[in-house]
Each structure stands twice: as C-alpha cells, then as structure tokens.
Amino acid sequence: MLTNGPPGATPDPAMRIGDPERERTAARLGQALAQGYLSMEEYETRVGRAFEAQTAGALNHLVDDLPVARISRQDPSRRAALRAAARRGVRIHLGVYLAVSALMIGIWLATAVSVGEWYFWPIWPMLGWGIGVVSHAIPVGACAGKGRRTTGGS
C-alpha cells in the first residue's frame, strides 16, 4: 500500500499520485513476480496499469491481493535469508578454493618428486584466487555485521 504520512496511515484513494509512487508499485510488482506470486502476463498487465494510474486507490488495487509484507524489501526474514545466502556463497567459494589448492599442491608434489624441481609454482594461482576469496568475504562480513547491529538495536 502507498503511504504518504505517518507509518500505518493509508492515503485517500482519490489522492493523485506521481511517478515515484508508480515506480515503487512497479518495483513491488517486480518483487512479486520474482517470488512467484505473479505470472509474467499478469505482471506486465499490472505494471502497465501502474504507470497509467492517476490515484492512490488505483495503485493500491494493483497490490491488494499480494502478500505485501512478504515481498517487501524491509521484511526482516527476507534480509536474514539474503545474509545467510551470502555467507553460504562465501563458504562455497572458500571450500572450492581450498580443494583446488590442495589439488595443485598434490600435483606440485608429484611432479617435484618425480622430476626433482622444487619450485613451488602453486603459490601464484593460490595467491590470485585467494585475493578473490578475500574480496568476496570482506563485504559479506561487513554486511552481516551491519545487519546484526541494526536488528539488535531495534
């Protein structure tokens, strides 16, 4: 639903709306499509109507039958799920990095023993990929820390 005033206030359905309200409704419809609440045809129809709408009531009618709280970007369970998915992505990235590093060290050891050359060449791909893993983990860790502070203080 559209709100202009204090939280929980519902605008007059006859109140005229502008592009920011239309764009917020279109974004909410896009979230509903992404989460499977709307088919592509229904989404296209509703978005077209959203950009043609002139009043708050017309926009509200487009999202009345949708679980607005579930598709909201501010839903705490949605944010928690996104943080968990990001952490899981870092763990997968780290796991693959460690597995490939172990494989490269095994190849190095086998060739070093058989040929007698002990130059540790796996350090270069491990360093390069390690920078990528760290670059992935730092923002995820920062966002997770920020999310804990935000939810803990509210």
From TrEMBL:
Pfam families: 2TM, DUF1707. Residues 15-67 form the DUF1707 domain. Residues 79-139 form the 2TM domain. InterPro entries: 2TM_dom (IPR025698), DUF1707_SHOCT-like (IPR012551). Keywords: Membrane, Transmembrane, Transmembrane helix. The chain crosses the membrane at residues 96-120, 126-145. This is Uncharacterized protein.
